[in-house]
TrEMBL record:
Pfam families, per the entry: Radical_SAM (PF04055)
Gene name for this UniProt entry: pflA
Keywords: 4Fe-4S, Iron, Iron-sulfur, Lyase, Metal-binding, Oxidoreductase, Pyruvate, S-adenosyl-L-methionine
Example GO molecular function: metal ion binding
Cofactor(s) required for function per UniProt: [4Fe-4S] cluster
Database matches in InterPro entries: Aldolase_TIM, Organic_radical-activating, PFL1_activating, Radical_activat_CS, rSAM, rSAM_sf
Lyase found in the keyword field: yes
Protein family (similarity comment): Belongs to the organic radical-activating enzymes family.
Role description: Activation of pyruvate formate-lyase under anaerobic conditions by generation of an organic free radical, using S-adenosylmethionine and reduced flavodoxin as cosubstrates to produce 5'-deoxy-adenosine.
Protein name: Pyruvate formate-lyase-activating enzyme
Record's keyword annotation contains Iron: yes
Organism: Schaalia cardiffensis F0333
Ranges for domain Radical SAM core: 84-311
Length: 313
């Protein structure tokens, strides 16, 4: 969902040589040496579903059945990257389907589940197995993002169960809007949650996402009450939309209740690098004239969260 280096608005899924060396055939992977491998440190362009086996010939009924079971998912793209979606080098899988319509979404082509490629959970687990040594060496693991990953909870469940059986660190990037779909069993297999707190005020949240704020608060409350999953808070700073100090203070009040599980707060400056996707899809892009926040404005917001006792990036 989010992008970095700690910036919003960088699309994935278009294919690029920048992460091509992260894709290896099975034979190449046997020769891979931890000390020789270096995944990209920032997200530029992802791989789409290149390298994954797409089960495009499955009939609609079987596809729906398998998606309900979690053996099949609707996948937008994947990438292998370092220091972006959690600690270490991570395999990040972006799923299709989202119930929100964030004005600054950098991947509006993930809105609809039907637009994703059908990929089996075994295919993803096989790729996790392939990169286990890299994950161990870097402290990385698997991150599932979207879209909204909790649109496909059974697919996420199977991947996280399989990853933990391999001893691999698991991470979920979510808005928390569908936190009710993330049951205790999934949380029992989740090491880290990247929780996108898009606003602290219900009216602003509605304007930004077309959704309701309360489900995100409820999900954060659950994470704090359980105390077993670490949390990174992500907030996108958009001038004229999310940068009002009443909104910032409201976010501070909300997340201060979750201090026992929060390891860091990321303030992500808005960028326009997703604009072309909105245009190509024929969607109205309401932030056409919005400029990124100034470094000074971003620094002030970060200083505020630091004043609350958080590690801030």
């Amino acid at each position: 969902m989010m992008t970095t280096p700690l910036s919003a608005g960088i699309p994935v899924g278009d294919g690029s040589s920048i992460v091509a060396r992260a894709r290896r055939s099975a034979d190449d992977d046997k020769q891979l040496r931890d000390q020789d491998f270096q995944a990209p440190m920032s997200r530029a362009l992802g791989l789409g579903t290149a390298g994954l086996v797409e089960l495009t010939e499955i009939e609609r009924h079987e596809r729906l059945t398998r998606m309900r079971e979690g053996t099949l998912g609707s996948v937008h793209s994947w990438e292998l990257v370092t220091a972006v979606d959690g600690p270490g080098t991570r395999l990040t899988v972006f799923l299709n389907g989202c119930g929100l319509r964030c004005l600054y979404c950098h991947n509006p082509d993930t809105f609809l589940m039907k637009d994703g490629a059908p990929v089996s959970s075994d295919e993803i687990l096989g790729r996790i197995r392939r990169y286990r040594r890299i994950f161990r060496a870097t402290g990385g693991g698997i991150t599932i993002s979207g879209g909204e990953a909790m649109m496909q909870p059974e697919f996420v469940r199977r991947i996280f169960h399989g990853a933990k059986e391999m001893g691999v660190h698991t991470c979920l990037d979510t808005s928390g809007f569908l936190g009710v779909n993330c049951d205790d069993d999934i949380l029992d297999h989740l090491d880290l949650c990247l929780l996108d707190v898009k606003s602290g005020l219900p009216d602003t949240y509605k304007r930004v996402t077309s959704g309701e704020l309360q489900p995100t608060i409820d999900f954060g409350d659950r994470l704090a009450a359980r105390g077993t999953t670490r949390v990174w808070i992500r907030f996108v700073l958009v001038p004229g939309l999310t940068d009002d100090w009443d909104n910032i203070h409201a976010i501070g009040e909300i997340i201060s209740k979750w201090k026992n599980v929060i390891d860091r707060v990321e303030v992500l400056p808005f960028h326009q690098m997703g604009r072309d996707k909105w245009h190509s899809l024929g969607l109205k892009y309401e932030l056409e004239e919005t400029k990124p926040p100034t470094p000074e404005a971003t620094a002030k917001i970060r200083e505020y969260f630091e004043s609350l006792g958080f590690e801030v990036h």
